Amino acid sequence: MSDSIEHLKAAGLPRHVAIILDGNGRWALQRDLSRAEGHIAGAKAVERLIRFAGRELGLEYLTLFAFSAENWDRPKQEVDALMALLKQFALEKLRELQDAGIRLRIAGDISRLPDDTREAVEYVIAETTNGDGLNLTIALNYGSQQEIIRACQRIVHAVMSGELDKDSVDRTAFVASLYTAGIPDPDLIIRTSGEQRLSNFLLWQAAYAELAFPETLWPDFTPEEFSRILREFQTRDRRFGTVEGE
Hints:
246 residues, 44% helix, alpha/beta, 9 helices, globular, 6-stranded parallel β-sheet, Undecaprenyl pyrophosphate synthetase
């Protein structure tokens, strides 16, 4: 696969890829397994992809939608299993993240996470802050509509407190108030499982993103399929609202 990777890199990689990790539950159902077991399989797919994106491809930015603000409405047993899995992943993979130079960031309000899970995540963020490789963002307790409202509230507060002049409120000021401040907008957003919607994910940031909707359920998503999607992305003509030739 090394030759194909070199060709893929030579053709120009997207700077930032974001992925909606969808299909863990259906994957488990097809195998008569619990949804928790589906999430465990999904976590293994996350590990595979991070290793491939960071070590093999040298991708700059990868964002993974792991837990939405709406996911709290799922059965408590499933939510508890997800939180425990997140804590386990954070602590067990810290050394690997550090060795690979991966910097972890979070998009979303993690104050609602269980204390032990939140503390584990915050610890890994602090311990990887000097990473100079892949910038890995995990969207946790994240919703894009909520993010946009939060950004508006932050700007209103800054104007009312005198920190920001109202005439200085522009796109730059708004982007600086998002969870993704300092991260380039995604060039490519992938949603696995065949569902063709963004589900409240990076709505502002997705303005000019290319979209891909593979049928594969997330636990079965492989580096080979990721490479295939990247190759297809490289054939697209991205004009950002202009016409050909401009």
